[in-house]
Amino acid sequence: MSDRREILIITPPFTQLNAPYAAAPFLAGTLTRQGYAVRQCDLGIRTTLRLFSPDGLGRLFPLIAGKKLTDEQERVCDLAPRYSATIGEVIPFLQGKNPGLAQRIVTRRYLPEGPRFAVLDDGAVEFDTLDLHDQALYLATLYLDDIADIAAATALPGFGLARYHERLAQSPATFDELYRTATGPGDLVTDLMMQELAALDLAAVGTVLVTIPFPGALIGALRVGRYMKEKGIAVIFGGGYVNTELRELADPRFFEFCDFVTLDNGEAPVLAILEGKPFLRTFRLVDGKVAYEPGDAPDLFGEELGAPSYDTAELARYLDLIETPNPMHRLWSARGTLKIRLTHGCYWHKCAFCDTGLDYIGRYRPLPTALIVEQIERLVRETGMNTFHLVDESLPPAVLREFSMEVLRRGLTVSWWGNIRFEKGFNADLCRLMAAAGCIAVTGGLEGVTPKMMELMRKGVTQEEAICAIGRLSDAGIMIHAYLIYAFPGQTLPDLIDGLEIVRQLFFHELIQSGYFHRFALTVHSPVFAEQERYGIVSHRRHNKFANNDVSYTEKVPHDLDAFGPGLKKAIYNYLHGAQWDAELRTFFDVPVPAPALSPHAVTRMLKKQPKEKDPHGRVLWLGALPERLGTGAEGTILRLTGLTDAVRWELPTPLADWLIATLTRTSVLTGNGEPLTFAQLRASFPQNAGGFGDFMHSEFFDDLTTLGLLVV
Question: Which pTM was predicted?
Answer without folding.
Answer: 0.94
